[in-house]
Amino acid sequence: MTSTLRAGIIGAGFIGTVHANAVRAAGGELTRVAASTPDRSAEAVTRLGARAGAATGEDLIDADDVDVVHVCTPNSRHVPLARRALAVGKPVVCEKPLATTLDDARNLAAEAGTQVATVPFAYRFYAAVREIRARVAAGGAGALHLLHGAYLQDWQAAGGPAGWRGEPSEGGAYRAFADIGVHWCDLVEFTSGHRITSLLAATAGEGTASTVTFRTDGGATGSAVVSQTSLGRRNSLRISLDGERAAYRFDQEDPETLLVGGTDGDLAVHRGSPAFSDAAARYSLLPPGHPQGYQDCFNAFVTDTYSAIRGDAPDGLPTFADGLRAAALTDAVIRSSQSSAWVQVPS
Question: Which helix (H) or strand (E) holds 237?
Fold first, then answer.
């Protein structure tokens, strides 16, 4: 492996472009890209700034000039491509959902073993999110009793097409939760330190909306509303962790601010504040007043992944084990929605 990690990206749509930008920000080189057809691969070489194209994803994985594989394809292709990369000993960054079934996710996570294999739960990399996590761990909130919020988008509202995400083999009847609900759950579990142990879910709108009520292993209850048909909501990922001494609130559409609820109301703590911990400051990359956003988070995620490949895994890096956790939550939402009953979430 060269000192500069050479990346190959399979899938050249929106998220493939995000990965390409992050590769360069992390100091890597994008050597190859593979899209759905050879012609699209050739077009993506120029658009994504790759050195060369590959005829297929399999050819990209096998290429001698690719050290790390980024899988950015439709969901049904994740398992075979990630499995092939792991089999030849190459680190993998695989988009979520890790797999379309819980069994496949479980098998893939087991196959990863100790290899570097990560899943882009990129919202973990906002400085305000790391600050919530640090404050909860330090006991600033006291015992948490309520975890709640929503993840709302509108790209399928007013008859907007679902594209491949609406196909049964890709997401189908539970696509909103599998696509974005898992991000909400990951963020809440990551910041609170709680794990969802049981839930009651209802899904409607041909899979475009789910509501979830849950209990945690830390004695809290909670709820989440997940929708991709909420008009006017572009990417509204909101969490609130309510404790006996403080409540911590985060909104991805206003990511520079952490709201701390107390008896006197909300205190707004901005990124870059001296009140932020070292854990949060590590992800505060620009001077205060210069907004950081989603691409910055993704850049930090890939940078941390590449650090792990070099032997220095930073705290909080989302791995295939976290992808498996998301699959377990999705499976529980499906089972509960179908039975209209509370179900246990496998640990």
Answer: strand 236-243
